[in-house]
Queue: 3 jobs
Job 1
Amino acid sequence: MASISSLGIGSGLDLNGLLDQLNAAERGKLKPIESQIKTQQVKISAYGELKGALSAFQTAANALNDASLYQSLSTSTTGEAIQAAAGADASLGRYEVEVETLASAGSYATARLEGIETLDDSVVSGGGTLQLQFAHANGGDGESVPISIDDNATLADIRDAINAEQAGVTASIVNDGDGYRLALMSTDTGEEASITGMDWSGVDLEAGVSFSTTATAVENVGKDAELTVNGIAISSPSNQVEGAIQGVTLNLTGEGSSTVKVEQNTRAVREAITGFVEAFNALKGTIGKLTAFTGDSETAGDLLGDSAVRSIESQLRSVLAGGVAAEEGGFAMLSDIGISLKLDGTLEIDQQRLDDVIANDQDALSAFFAGDTATGGLAGQLSEAITQLNGNNGALGGAISGAESRIESLNERYARMEQSIDATIARYRTQFGQLDGMIAQMNQTSDYLFQQFEMMNAQLGRK
């Protein structure tokens, strides 16, 4: 049988078109699987959105499950003399602070150096040791700090040697208009840290170099900060004063009067509880969107009728409504602190009641939300419930893994069916090729016979 290189050439039939139609019909069998895969992918995306909302709610619950939140303190100040920050061990109270003097750093400038014109000129011919003198250096260990100076050192070399030693001063060079001076500034404030002078006897100055007897050294002794707290006099070498008020750090910014109040940080607690309610209501909004029924399958929620969502709502509602075991005088239910569960499933705050609880019952509020163990309070119970829901055996975690497994199974089924379709089309192509060749052969035979009959008729006609 003759071989056909292209379908339809031998027979004249549109076998390629027919094969395409058969291929399209066969691949139509894949449509239901594709639809099922897309459905599961949409579900996984919706589950991811739900998981994000659950995570945000868990974060808000965890913030309330921290007992230190209810023990935090805040400071407020009036006046511009100080800023204040309270630590955990601060005592509640009101403090009147009068800043009389700010702490300052001492400074010292040498007499003008005569005999040098540029900073490249050598100041010291024979190196040695330069002594920096302090009012009370190194915490009482001595009153001077040695600085090693090289031979032929310039003023810039001396400056760099002092700075490299990190001796409690910063050295620089000042041009007073008529010549150069070496200037030093104490790195710490306070009288005891003051730089008071320099002893050059341990080095040999270059010939012709000397210190001016008219433009003499300039010394400014540092000062300690002087203040009173509730009338008690306090001296500090730094403008950051710790210990004057227990657990409070005062940063002195100017001279004058200020009032410091150390109070419970009610704002942080209020923001945490408000954030908790808002996060839960946002979660309810996400669930409502994902399970919405519109009567139109095109716009209905992606998780409409989903059992995992119903389980999540049921478990969270159970924890919220169940409350906690409370001691006498404590809070057992959300409603006790001014938070109610509405008919639509969202939470609502009675701001007046909540403000009263925050202002007067933070210990009981801590026991209600945080408890004395990780899951002893309502916030801990909610966080644990969400963790379980997200686990492999939880409602949401199981739903996600189930959808992923179904997609994997459908993909395998899709691949098998696609292979089967490809094999079927290949078989059709072979059969069509054989058909095309057979028809082509039959056409050739027909043409041959027709020619023979024509020749016979012509011969008979001549006779």
Job 2
Amino acid sequence: MVCKDGNEMIYLLAFGFAKSECTKSWTWFLKKLRKVIQYPDRVMLVSDQQNGIFNAMEAIFLDAAHGVCAYHLAQNLKRFCKQRDNVIWLYYHATYAYCIEEFDRAMAELKETYHKVYDELLSAGVKNFSRVHSPKKRYFLMST
């Protein structure tokens, strides 16, 4: 949505109830949502990487960008090392960076000190978790 001053806005668009988070439920929900979205190429869907929603998004919203929820990804990263606080701080520093240099510094430190976390982030896809690399504007909304 675009305001009168030309700035874009982000807002809750829809919600639904289903028996479970599975591909069938998400496909139903996203098909309904797709009917009301005029410009799917402007959409940024953020999820927790659950297979059901990911599969449905791939099928229904071909033109939309997909992002990974920063909170859920952080929870997944905690299993890779015991010094969690520093790892999570570096991860969030990279995730919320507004410039590439800041992102690169945080990622370089992760690579040097917590290589498994660094590898896991690369496998998640930099454009999926990083604000500065996102194909769509995420503003401050990095989680579901």
Job 3
Amino acid sequence: MGYIDPEYYHTGRLTESSNVYSFGIILLEVATGEPPILHGHGHIVQRVKQKVTSGNISLVADAQLRGSYDVSSMWKVVDIALVCTADVASQRPTMAAVVAQLKESLALEEAREDMGGVTASSMSDVVDMVSTFGPSAR
């Protein structure tokens, strides 16, 4: 249930922006290490928005990463995810725009890798896979 576009509840129609919303939830899961819904703690979008107000990305990022990420890259991923999960579908980006932003985030992470960080090749594989997706007929 935590992946479903809020507008779908009102219209009963799935759209490309519904897919963008669901992808935003997945990005938040990857960034935070948390499931979409935690009973007693609400939905991941609300939880992340509360943490973002602190201005400290380490409160948002998955603690198991132990700070092993480029801070700017993590902020970019979280920002992209939050834009993808806008309540109003018309305020969400296209998947092409999301992929472009993720590639920028990946470049930041790869620059950190070049300076001795951990590998980002698996993230590169995910971005490449996502960038091959296009709208499907419904």
